[in-house]
């Protein structure tokens, strides 16, 4: 657990299974068009994952959540306000390498959207 309650221990990247497979092959998690346009890789905190999945990936049938320890990359991450959501989100100002991801957690899809765990 983080010693500072306002700083999470992990940050998360939502990914389609094929994006994670590409990362396993190339060693780098692919950027999306929105990442290239904004100049950083969009990440979430644990508490933001499900809403982000349901808002931005509603049409996806499968999603995995890439868990990334914040401490080793903290110098490359800025928590910045997303005005539409009124929350600060972690933004990674570098490429995300496969070795920085500790695990890929599948989300379950229910009739109401994505949830943690199995449907």
Offer a concise description of the structure.
The chain is 20% helix and 32% strand.
Describe the protein's architecture and organization.
With 119 residues, the protein is an alpha+beta fold. It has one domain (10-112): Protein of unknown function DUF952 (ADP-ribosylation fold), CATH 3.20.170.20. The protein is 20% helix and 32% strand. It is built from three helices and seven strands, in the order βααβαβββββ. The chain has helices spanning 17-26, 33-38, 49-56; strands spanning 10-15, 41-42, 64-69, 77-82, 87-92, 103-110, 113-116. A four-stranded antiparallel beta sheet has the order 1-3-6-7. The protein has a three-stranded antiparallel beta sheet with strand order 2-5-4. A hairpin with a 4-residue loop joins strand 4 (77-82) and strand 5. The chain is globular. The termini are far apart. The model has no long low-confidence stretch (mean pLDDT 93).
Keywords:
single chain, 119 residues, alpha+beta, ADP-ribosylation fold, three-stranded antiparallel β-sheet
Write the topology of this structure.
Blueprint: E1 10-15, H1 17-26, H2 33-38, E2 41-42, H3 49-56, E3 64-69, E4 77-82, E5 87-92, E6 103-110, E7 113-116
Overall geometric form = globular
| Percent in strands | 25-35%
CATH class: Alpha Beta
Oligomerization: single chain
Number of helices: 3
Helix proportion: 10-25%
Q: For the record, what is the CATH homologous superfamily label?
A: Protein of unknown function DUF952
